[in-house]
RNA sequence: GCCAAGGUGGCGGAACGGCUACGCAAUCGCCUGCAGAGCGAUUCCAUUCCGGUUCGAGUCCGGACCUUGGCUCCA
């Protein structure tokens, strides 16, 4: 079997994918459920989906965990502002998220752990860090990670920051951004938290932002698993801190491969919630665009490259999908004489080759398009048209474009 | 400022140091009762700039300029 190569942020190199054990463990940073997820977020989720599908296609068993971040400063602030309870709000946006996943034909993860349902595990892992001397209790009652104890800090993001002693409890911009700071693992209760608190051995309070990923990944995948994925904006500080935490608690980096999906741009700028220049899947479907066209567009570029979202691109994606579906439909009544079976074999080989190279979905779509063109030009006989259909099915099982569902 | 990524036709985007993809747009045909879809053909003075290496550079080296991203909200 040809090996898949993946770009590991940790080493900044493409590496051959060699799993640690029988089942490939994948942890993916899921949505923060205080807003609608936008198609930039979904670029990462779609990439993850194709990776999982492709690994299964290659015969691996995969266990994927996708966390649901249902507690953090922004979520609390949003709930307060909208006059809703945190639970009410996160429940709503989680439901929407799952609906959107289905709309985009994304496979569900094996586990969708919620931060609020893992407080005992969170407390436990913080206690481990304290026992091992990586965490301490601050004067304000919060528990902080002592960054000076972790020599490898910064290895993932390659940032050269100065060691400082500024503590960050709230997830806000520090005034001196070039100074590394101890960050909160457990945030002591404050009035604005309202009814959101847990009474634990660490006192009355709530989990910090980064800790859930350490707690939930170690619970559901063990302290060492294969792949951790997220958007590039998670590299720093989130994943850097996750690595620090795991080292503090278990003495090792939790993941062998760290994959990061680059941002989706709109009009040449990053699509983000804070810049409010984003579209959600339902914005676009509401305008009459097909979900699979959105997906097609988001897959049309290798995940490590920036992709600029335009409506022209969306329209093109729509046309390409239609073209492919039309070609498949025609095969149904094929009654020609050409033995086109070779086409299918060749296309499949190329398809795998480009995906093996760091999951280049953009090129995979090109292969799919060219294969479509080739098939249309021929007049396949019954037998080879069956082969061709099978090949389309296989490709679709990896890309999840629902080519056969209409 | 520091750390990255990148600059290719009207647009989007490929390209082991050699044969100048491909798609969109545009034009013309074929097919069609009309439309759509499909097929064929055609058009377009493209590699940010300046040096260097080479028989040969979009590709390698050096230097500018510009764009974007990260630098404690974020997929």
Structure description:
It is a single chain. It is built from twelve helices and 15 strands. The chain is α/β, with parallel strands linked by helices and 406 residues long. The protein folds into two domains: 19-266, HUPs (Rossmann fold); 310-399, Four Helix Bundle (Hemerythrin (Met), subunit A), CATH 1.20.120. The strands form four sheets. Strands 5, 6, 7, 8, 9 and 10 form a six-stranded mixed beta sheet that branches. A four-stranded parallel beta sheet has the order 4-3-11-12, with helices on both faces. Helix 6 links the parallel strand 11 and strand 12 (255-261). Helix 8 (291-299) packs across helix 9 and helix 10 (341-356) runs parallel beside helix 12 (382-399). The chain is elongated, with a radius of gyration of 23 Å. The mean pLDDT is 91. It binds one RNA strand of 75 nucleotides through helix 1, strand 8, strand 11, helix 6 and strand 14.
Question: Would you kindly provide a brief summary of this structure?
Answer:
The protein is of the alpha/beta class and 406 residues long. Helix content is 43%, strand content 18%. Strand 11, helix 6 and strand 12 form a beta-alpha-beta unit.
